[in-house]
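In this supplementary section we document a worked example of the pipeline. Step one takes a protein sequence of length 263 as its only input; no multiple sequence alignment statistics are reported here. Step two produces a three-dimensional model, which step three serialises into structure tokens for compact storage. The input and output of this example are shown verbatim.
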Amino acid sequence: MSAGIGGEGSTSAMAEPADGQDAAEKKKKFIMVVDGNPRDTLTTGMILQNFGYSVTTVKSAEEALEFLSIAVPSLIIAEFILPGMNCIDLLDRMRQDPVVSKIPVMVQTSHPDPSSRDRCLNAGCILYIRKPVRGEDLYRAVQSIIEQTPRKTARAAAFLEASVDDTEPGAEFVTVLSEQGLFVKTLHPRPVGSKHAVSFVLKKKIVRVEAVVLYAHGFDEGPEKDPGMGMKFVDLDPGNRALVQEYVQESISFGAPSKQVHD
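The serialised model returned by step three reads:
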């Protein structure tokens, strides 16, 4: 049984939310991964950690039940085929406990038998998906299950010097980036609804976009919210969009093996 997944480097939490309050909410939630395949466990665990969640990994249904006797995760992601008891057995045992039975279970499997999907859903799992699972698909699945306001687009944490409307660089930074927009940390957030030209360097290339301010936090709004503004792209050319997509994908998979084992 592992209490978490190790990792080094400044990008080890590359999908942090735009402000501290959202990040704090995520840290209250942890996900248990149940998989006997070490490579797949590492891949899923690292991707989830990159999304900002705490992760516990176990290798069998028996270890999962032992862990559930002392802690209750927000979500369980389990392989169908496990050493000893399989996922159906795990679901059956969980249903015997009124507290544990409320934990949502998502099955992520390489099992080739299509009938296993119906068996898992009938046994109580909330979602059944086949490996390999893309990072963004996993993000959307987890968001839809455990977040009150699910996000459809994965976001990557960053620390990129930015210039808004040609201001001098060094005072403003892009700290979150997605295919749809960005968060600019600044002591001087612009008015909500206003449009601005934003430029920053990404992967040694200058990216210039036009974005509208969706929300803003002032410096005096407390430690849980970074001062700055969340912005949505209104003009992003295809080349820059591809660059942002590449950055987000690399950030999601940081520290994970390149492929999951599957049939």
